[in-house]
Amino acid sequence: RLACDLALHLRAKGHPVTIVTSAINPKTDTSKNLTVIRVEGDDKPNGAWAYFKILKRMERAAKKLPRHDIVISMTDPPMLATVGDRVARSMRSKHIHWAMDLYPDLLPVLGANIPAIIQKIIHYKIYNAVKKADALVPISECIAKHIAKNTTTKQSVTIENWPERSLLKQEECAPFFKDTDQKFRILYAGTIGLAHDFEALLSAATYFKKHSPEIEFVFVGGGRGLSALEKKAKDRALFNIRFLSHQPTEKIKSMMEGGDLHLVTIKDRAAGLLYPSKFYSACAVGRPIIYIGPKECEIHKNIQTHQCGASIRTTDSQALIKSITEYRNNAKMWNDHAQNAKTIIALSPNKNLKQWDDLIAHLNGVH
After folding, report:
1. Is the dihedral of CA 327, 333, 335, 340 positive or negative?
2. Which own/partner pairs from 42-45 qualify as long-range (CB within 8 Å, at least 24 positions apart)?
3. CA-to-CA distance for 251 and 219, rounded, in angstroms?
4. How far, in Å, CA of 293 to CA of 291, rounded?
5. Which of 97, 111, 218, 225 is least surrounded by Cβ atoms within 10 Å, i.e. has the fewest?
6. What does the pLDDT look like over 149-191, one tens digit per residue?
């Protein structure tokens, strides 16, 4: 979604843009100044060989293109930085690596069983490609710091992610939740992945089921961690936890506004390796954020600086229960933190896209 926003922005600025990605059904779509090439690839690749085939197809497709001034690589699928490096060198173009999460560093956190020697080779190849890139764009300072521990870079410019534009529209939405009884909802909207920690939340849900049944936890989305989380909720008879599938675009804003608090969580071992964009989505709709995760993640700093939520250690379920209870019972604190959340993205996404404009102009020698 962010790559699409950037591509449309650059096209609006008059830059011809080509996107190379993958899909189950390969095809190419072309419109004014924008071409999208979809090479063949599984929706959910299973195993290293599936990823390798997608990467090779993307590389072959990119190398068939006419020269582009800038090549931007992303971090998923893993090893894409190396493809970006080779494509940029073959085109004699500038290479920007956009670091949203860090592989192979994340693989052990996700439970991937990769031999140490293979992981070491992948680590070397990716960070060597990052080192050779003309610019690095990490999405947070904690990611930038982790990269700096592993390699040097020619130029690093931190550009934070931004929320969906639809969330910033000033319009009234019909309520997403139609319950007749009043619920106080903690909403988790997005990927339910293996890098996210939900143990404290399950403990809190167990407590509130008995003491405050009007407090409800809602998960919207899917991911590799969904089935395990559903099973844990079922085994504990946590009927105050609801699971909903991904929602269509036209319902996202009302769904996000339906949460009284928004939940963001990552495992301790994932600190500096990813930065959940759902933080910005919560800010866009003006909701306090409950962050469960390590203090090394930039979200902790943002919450402390802007007073827009609560930051809780992954194992501290009592602190989570206390924070939810305070927001439930203290309307002034909830409102103050909700307003503070909105100030974080007051200039977004225009400010973020302007940073991209400046970086691209600099690499192209335009001042």
Report:
1. negative
2. 45/77
3. 15
4. 6
5. 111
6. 999 999 999 999 998 877 877 677 788 888 767 899 999 999 9
